[in-house]
Amino acid sequence: LLYRLNLSAKTANSFRAFEYNNRQTIAPVISYQLDDNTVLTAEYILSKVKSSDVGSYYVFSSKGMGVLPRNFTIADPGLEPTLITDQSVTVNLKHRFNDHWTFTAQAAYLQYDQTGTSLWAASASADSMVRSQGLWDAASTAKFGQAFLNGDFETGGVHHRVIIGLDAYDKEYFADFYNSHNLDLDDNQFKFADPSYGNPSNGYPAWDRSTPLRIRAGVYGTQTSMYTGIYVQDELGFFDNRLRLTLAGRYSYAKNDDYGSPEKAKEITPRAGISW
Known about the structure:
This protein is mainly β.
């Protein structure tokens, strides 16, 4: 029985004021040798993130590029942080039948949750702008599965290295990015020459998160995708493996729905290669 525990923490500020990105991660791993030929490994990763708004890195001015100081920021100390929880579980099983054949199966489940906002420009002139904060609550789940068989054998004077496998993937992402709030009034904008922080002229937003995220996202805030595939490959070695011919093929079926626009596809992908 083998085990490992990884812990990490990061606190990062910026050369621009009010920008930060803090992260804590825990990642335990456990591996169990069931017998001489079989190993089962499980890994869990949990990350917690607290950061300032995406988009605050950018500065908007109709004067052109590079007209404001490098440390100029449109961020504000009163804005709520973006909070992210990112976690995944991975399980791997490897079994060796003999010196020539090995079977591997693995599965993973990923979950991502975000409560936050982004910061952009509603309008910008040469000397001022109206900052707009947009709601950006999001969640995502993804499931992966994979199994493959590796073989190594000879027929006559030809050496074969074979892999046969299948894989599958299913992901859903939904987000509420419909609402926004202008921090500055049109007649009292955020001035580049004399920026005022901590008291935007139009106040801070008060987001309504009482409705579940999946309902708020609706059809046009949801993405889904999935695929399944099966493949086989044989690398044939001639003349003591000095000449190698690779022949392979894969069949894939995929479905995708980006914000209410569903698509389907089926493909057969051949592969051939030669090496001396």
